[in-house]
């Protein structure tokens, strides 16, 4: 099923930055649970021409399903629960799969696609041509991390690490999970060539505030918050993310001011899966910067989730509206 946006405007194409903040739930629900007030953040991003959209909900409860929606530009299951498309994220980005709708549209519009992955969705093991970072060594340290996370010997490896004083999370996850920093660092180290080499669609899968909770609110490494169900650990990681978002907003404002930018969760925190009293697993954080000349339809405004946010930007670029 092909979904193609037709370019009716033929305008200069600007870069697109799509940051997936894994497990980042809505900011108002976060504030309510922890009795906090992050209005300063909302006021700040509004001054930077970003819009926060409340009540955004994705279609599914898992990362692979919701990110598959992004690449297919469509829900992936029909009414009977059958997958309408071949494959799921990240496998659908392999060369032996048909190009998903997002990649088809980006190619038609003259965009490059560059992907910043992580241990859970490892770009080098899927499709080298999409990887932002170049693989400069025969065995990349992140590949070790991917192997050990999936290996049955992981518990034994962790125990051995504790015995010899080696911290797996500090040496692998802390750096690898920070997709926002990886993008910024790479752009700076390469003299901003990717920003100037327009147009590019950057897809950054940032693995926070998803567990393991290994950052404090100032984004320093910590091992104080073990386990998947850890409210204090999630709170610290969430506050760190707000700090990282502000820093990236300032970076892009200075270096790529006309870009389209999306910061969104893929699903809510893990605690929502363990108990309904902790919210709806489908609820997400949704912060978007769209060109001031573009308009978001009232239908999409009612739920600016991953799919509607992306379709709004593609509609702005092409002048084509696809429901």
Question: What does the model show?
Answer:
- The chain is of the alpha/beta class.
- The chain is about 40% helix and about 10% strand.
- The protein has 13 helices and 8 strands.
- A 6-stranded mixed beta sheet has the order 2-8-7-1-4-3, sandwiched between helices. The chain has a two-stranded antiparallel sheet with strand order 5-6.
- A hairpin with a 5-residue loop joins strand 5 and strand 6.
- The radius of gyration is 19 Å and the shape is globular.
Strand order of the largest sheet: 2-8-7-1-4-3
Q: Report the order of strands and helices.
A: EHHEHHEHHHHHEEEHEHEHH
Global mean pLDDT: 88
Number of helical elements: 13
How many strand segments? 8
Q: Name the shape in a single word.
A: globular
What share of residues is helical? Answer: 25-40%
Structural class: alpha/beta
Q: Spans with pLDDT under 50 lasting ≥5 residues?
A: 137-148
Alpha-carbon Rg, integer: 19 Å
Oligomer: single chain
Sheet having the most strands:
6 strands, mixed
Share in β-strands: 5-15%
Terminal-residue CA separation: 14 Å
């Amino acid at each position: 099923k092909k979904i193609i946006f037709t370019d009716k405007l033929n305008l200069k194409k600007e870069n697109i930055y799509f940051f997936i903040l894994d497990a980042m739930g809505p900011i108002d629900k976060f504030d309510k649970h922890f009795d906090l007030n992050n209005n300063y953040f909302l006021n700040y991003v509004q001054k930077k021409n970003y819009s926060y959209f409340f009540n955004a909900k994705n279609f599914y409860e898992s990362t692979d399903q919701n990110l598959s929606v992004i690449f297919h530009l469509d829900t992936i299951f029909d009414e009977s629960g059958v997958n309408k498309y071949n494959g799921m994220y990240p496998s659908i980005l392999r060369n032996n799969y048909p190009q998903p709708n997002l990649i088809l549209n980006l190619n038609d519009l003259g965009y490059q696609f560059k992907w910043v992955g992580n241990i859970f969705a490892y770009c080098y093991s899927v499709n080298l041509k999409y990887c932002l970072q170049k693989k400069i060594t025969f065995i990349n340290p992140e590949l070790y991390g991917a192997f050990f996370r999936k290996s049955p010997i992981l518990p034994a490896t962790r125990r051995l690490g504790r015995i010899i004083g080696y911290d797996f999370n500090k040496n692998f996850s802390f750096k690898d999970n920070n997709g926002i920093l990886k993008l910024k660092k790479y752009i700076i180290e390469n003299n901003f060539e990717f920003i100037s080499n327009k147009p590019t669609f950057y897809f950054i899968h940032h693995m926070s505030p998803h567990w393991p909770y290994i950052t404090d609110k100032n984004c320093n490494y910590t091992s104080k918050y073990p386990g998947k169900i850890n409210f204090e650990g999630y709170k610290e990681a969430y506050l760190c993310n707000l700090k990282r978002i502000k820093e990236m907003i300032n970076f892009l404002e200075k270096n790529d001011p006309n870009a389209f930018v999306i910061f969104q969760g893929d699903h809510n925190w893990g605690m929502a899966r363990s108990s309904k009293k902790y919210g709806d697993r489908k609820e997400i954080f949704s912060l978007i910067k769209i060109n001031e000349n573009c308009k978001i339809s009232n239908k999409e405004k009612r739920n600016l989730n991953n799919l509607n946010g992306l379709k709004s930007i593609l509609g702005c670029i092409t002048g084509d509206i696809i429901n």
